[in-house]
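# nightly structure sweep
# worker-07 picked up a monomer target from the shared queue
# config: single-sequence mode, recycle default, output format = structure tokens
# input follows
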Amino acid sequence: MSGGAGGSERPEERQRFPPPGKSLPISALRQNGLLQALIGGAGQPASAEISEELRRAQEEWEAVEEIQSGLGGSAAGAAPPISFNEALQYFQTADLSECRKKVQATVRRQGLAALVHFLFGPPRLQPQLQGERELALAMAQCGLDDNERVHMRILQTIYKKLTRSRLGCPRYGAHWEELGFQGSPALPGADPGTDLRGTGMLGLMQMLYFVMDSQTLPLAREIFKLSHHETQNFPFCIMSVNITRIVIQALREERLSRECNRRQQVIAVLNDLYAAAFLQLYRVWKWQHKTVADSGFLLKELEFSTKKKPKQLLKSLEAYVNGSPAAGGLQQPSPPSASLGGSRAGEEIDFTGVCDLQLELEGEARLI
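# output follows
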């Protein structure tokens, strides 16, 4: 999916600002004794006058840091982190008419497949929830837009939460590789928007939920830490996008209708299932010492669990957030299910887009 209206920026324009940590040396600013005291962790000033000067110096220092990060004077850089609910309210009121035109809410079945699904398949989503389903799928058709302030705040919030950085970062640059974006072959890691194919802003919204919910943030950071392991590393955000694709497909195949009807929610169920699937992948990856070479097979198994056993995954997540030791990644998970039958170690898959009509995932497997 394209990076939105801002995707036309020329590469040379993307290098106007250095990435975080590549700013002016601190030594160039140490002529100011108050700044030096702040950096060195000096004790409390002796007078209110000095205290006021320290406060002003701190503000000046933070302003310098913002400018060095490439965000000085920009609304996205100055804006505070955005909560998931605030971002969702934006999409609920935004004009997504063009995105909605591309939405196919459910997978189309014909002939015997349609009859079998009608007689033995899961229940249909209740009418009052169909609008929320369409909103989720419309977000999946919405590209990352540099001109939309909320889009940029979402991106910056994810960066800050995962890296534990107080500062933002430039919109383009190789620093996005640290989060596990890959970008286009011509500009690797430069533009996260190019990695959202098939998931659009829903892919970023699910990452935002993951890092802004106090119950799942520790899990998100543990997975992010594992993604930088010396031998078990993997691209965190690319893996996240693939999990969002699986969740979208499960929704379109009406595999989640029963749970959505029970809870009278759609997007909350999607988010919980996303987190539950990521938890499952994390446990297997960590304890069975998996690497990127195993990713295709593991994602195939995860797709099976997400579509066939969503309730079981959700219960596992519930146990995790409630503090169950077995759910906290402290115990090795069960061996892979034998019910996959034809799946073989190393078998790979390719993910369909949100509006593709195929029921089965075909082709060569890869992390997109």
